[in-house]
Specification:
- There is one protein chain.
- The protein is α/β, with parallel strands linked by helices and 316 residues long.
- It has a domain at 4-117 and 299-312: Nucleotidyltransferase, domain 5 (2-Layer Sandwich), CATH 3.30.420.
- It is 44% helix and 19% strand.
- It is built from 11 helices and 10 strands.
- It has helices at 49-66, 87-99, 111-120, 161-177, 185-193, 201-207, 210-214, 217-225, 229-253, 275-287, 300-312; strands spanning 11-17, 22-28, 33-39, 76-81, 105-110, 125-130, 134-139, 145-149, 261-266, 291-293.
- Strands 3-2-1-4-5 form a 5-stranded mixed sheet. A 5-stranded mixed sheet has the order 8-7-6-9-10, with helices on both faces.
- Helix 9 packs across helix 10.
- The longest helix has 25 residues, at 229-253.
- The chain is globular, with a radius of gyration of 21 Å.
Length: 316
């Protein structure tokens, strides 16, 4: 492929890599989107940066094919992926992507960084991400940035889809023992996992990935909507954990939770109209009274394109 800077209309790429899917936007220097591609997850796992790089390279290739620009190498590619907040992981992914020559210039960022670019640009605010994992980032009026959560599936990610699915399994096994009341979650989860009995949960859980657990979150929400007490308790617990992320950052960057604070949501668990989002918005009215919820959807891949254009030298 010919080098991007030699092309009269250089291309930029924005990549949003999560634990459940990866989204790629191919755009020209003006920001016009030429292709949108979605594919497998590319969140970083220790020692598996090359696998993530292969996914990203493949999807960028699909985007170039869709835009009929297969002979052009993009000038700038900004990749925002879950797990890239750790410097070692980010550097390993950058090296893998550079070896694959996906663009003339490659920048690797945490997924929250590119989401913040789309949500607030250069302004202050708090961004809460709850998908397979969870994390919150904030930028204060003084430009200072803070993070809350994002400690990964083994010791953190409270309020995430993975966290919710894993706790749902604990609820149904406890109900089976008689330690908790019966719940409709049992039948719904066995059906969703296509398992015969609760005994089959043990081998399933031994092999399950965080994204597999995350697939159970919609099941919990569906059962909660029918009025099931245990499912509703799980949703309430989830909402409290997420509200705590926002309140913590409100106090760190905006003096306290009563200050005027722009708040944006991202991630599948907080999609517009979802049960968790509806209840979280209601909970924040008391937990963070100064919060003003951004109604527009946050598009992290679009934020990555914005950052790529800035690296190209375009004012955005």
């Amino acid at each position: 492929m010919s080098a991007g800077p030699l092309d009269p209309t250089p291309l930029v790429v924005g990549v949003d890599g999560g634990g459940s899917r990866t989204r790629v936007l191919l755009a020209d220097a003006s920001g016009k989107v030429l292709a949108r591609i979605e594919g497998p997850a590319s969140a970083l796992q220790p020692g598996q940066e090359s696998l993530a790089a292969d996914v990203i390279k493949s999807l960028i290739g699909e985007a170039l094919t869709t835009a009929e620009r297969t002979e052009t190498r993009p000038a700038v590619c900004v990749v925002g992926v879950a797990g890239a907040g750790q410097e070692r992981a980010a550097q390993a992914l950058w090296s893998a992507l550079a070896q694959r020559r996906i663009a003339d210039d490659v920048s690797v960022q945490a997924d929250a960084t590119i989401a913040m670019d789309d949500a607030f640009g250069d302004s202050a605010g708090v961004l809460l991400i709850a998908g397979t994992g969870s994390v919150a980032y904030s930028k204060g009026p003084d430009g200072r940035t803070e993070r809350c959560g994002g400690w990964g599936p083994n010791i953190g990610d409270e309020g995430s889809a993975h966290w919710l699915g894993r706790r749902a399994l604990s609820v149904i096994t406890a109900a089976h023992d008689g330690r908790e009341p019966e719940t409709a979650l049992t039948g719904a989860i066995l059906t969703a996992l296509e398992l015969e009995s609760l005994d089959d949960i043990i081998p399933w859980a031994a092999k399950a990935t965080p994204s597999a657990y995350a697939l159970l979150a919609p099941v919990v929400a569906q059962v909660a909507a029918t009025g099931d007490l245990r499912a509703n308790a799980l949703i309430s617990f989830c909402v409290e954990e997420l509200a705590l992320h926002v309140r913590t950052l409100a106090r760190r960057c905006f003096t306290d939770e009563r200050a005027a604070i722009p708040v944006a949501f991202a991630g599948g668990l907080l999609a517009r109209g979802s049960l968790v989002r509806k209840r979280l918005e209601q909970r924040l009215k008391s937990a963070v009274p100064g919060a003003t919820i951004r109604s527009e959807e946050v598009d992290a891949a679009r934020g990555a394109v914005r950052r790529a254009r800035r690296l190209l030298g375009v004012e955005v």
